[in-house]
Amino acid sequence: MPSLQTLNLAHLPPDLAVHIALYTDLQNAPFLRDQLLQGNPDFEYALIDASVIVSTTHVLAAVFRAANDYLTGRLKSRNVHSEIVFCLGANNNIAQSLRTFGITPTTTNLLAIKLSTSPDITAATVSEHLATTVKGTAADFSDAALAKVGDVAKIRKLYKLSGVGEAGPKGKRRRKDGSEEGSGGIGGSKAGDTGADANRERKELEVAILGLMALRGAV
Predict the structure, then answer these.
(1) b or e along 117-154 (b: 16 or more beta carbons within 10 Å of the residue's beta carbon)?
(2) If you count DSSP H runs as helices and E runs as strands, how many of each does the chain have, helices first?
(3) CB–CB of 4/20 below 8 Å?
(4) Which terminus of the chain has fewer CB atoms gathered within 10 Å of its CB, N or C?
(5) Quick check: 67 and 12 in contact, CB under 8 A?
(6) Which residues pair with 110 in a beta bridge?
(7) Is 30 helix (H, G, I), strand (E, B) or coil?
(8) How many other C-beta atoms lie within 10 A of the C-beta of residue 172?
(9) Dihedral, CA of residue 106, residue 157, residue 87 and residue 191, to nearest 10
(10) What span, in angstroms and rounded, lies between the C-alpha atoms of 76 and 82?
(11) In DSSP terms, which residues pair with 22 in a beta bridge?
(12) Which residues sit opposite 24 in a β-bridge?
């Protein structure tokens, strides 16, 4: 699996590339978090606990908003990378967003994001730095990979979206014709579920989350 993917988001300058890597089985979360808290410039990343991310669109929406605010001089936090974590939140409490979505000492699945805010930040330099500092298993940055590590129940609770994307009584969903279908048990999909019903639940949750993030951005 590739350890780093470089993306160019639509409506952003092509030189403001987004470098993003997903790691599972992370072994040195306390060290990475300490470097971040100490303000070590070598560790200026958005370090996100992947268990609270429902999809690639979810996190890239936060990246886009933060990058746009960076370009227009409207950052509310210390830098564009902390702003990415802040933009995942559904309210304007920066500290709460950083605690909720940022890396913790017990994080085992990590998203590391770096924007090319200067010419010396390239895919090669970011990849080399992550390879020497992150002790984890590199995974593909994809919806399928995030579905394996995302905790849907936890995400639903964080965003106060009880019932969104959940199964009905006895874990059954209603089809359009009125018949019932399974949805992975009572309470909806669990972390690691990747079936059709689980994917549908995640999509419903993603739509609701993006709406909350957009409302926060409009305030």
Answers:
(1) beeebeeeebbebbeeebebebbebebebbbebbbbee
(2) 8, 7
(3) yes
(4) C
(5) yes
(6) 23, 49
(7) helix
(8) 15
(9) 60
(10) 9
(11) 111, 139
(12) 137
Dist. CA 36–CA 114, nearest whole Å: 13
The helix (H) or strand (E) run that includes residue 210 is helix 196-218
| Beta carbons within 8 Å of 8's beta carbon, 6+ residues apart | 14, 17, 18
pLDDT in tens, 93-147: 999 999 999 999 999 999 999 999 999 999 999 999 999 999 999 999 999 999 9
pLDDT in tens, 50-76: 999 999 999 999 999 999 999 999 999
Measured CA to CA, the distance from residue 130 to residue 21 in angstroms comes to 9
Query: What percent of the chain is helix, strand and coil (3-state, nearest 5)?
Result: 45, 15, 40
> Using one digit for the tens of pLDDT, what is the confidence trace for 167-190?
555 555 433 333 444 443 334 555
Residue 197 — very low, low, confident or very high, per pLDDT cuts 50/70/90?
confident
**What does the pLDDT look like over 26-57, one tens digit per residue?**
999 999 999 999 999 999 999 999 999 999 99
Residue 210 has pLDDT above 70, yes or no: yes
Amino acid letter for position 135: K
3 state DSSP class of 173: strand
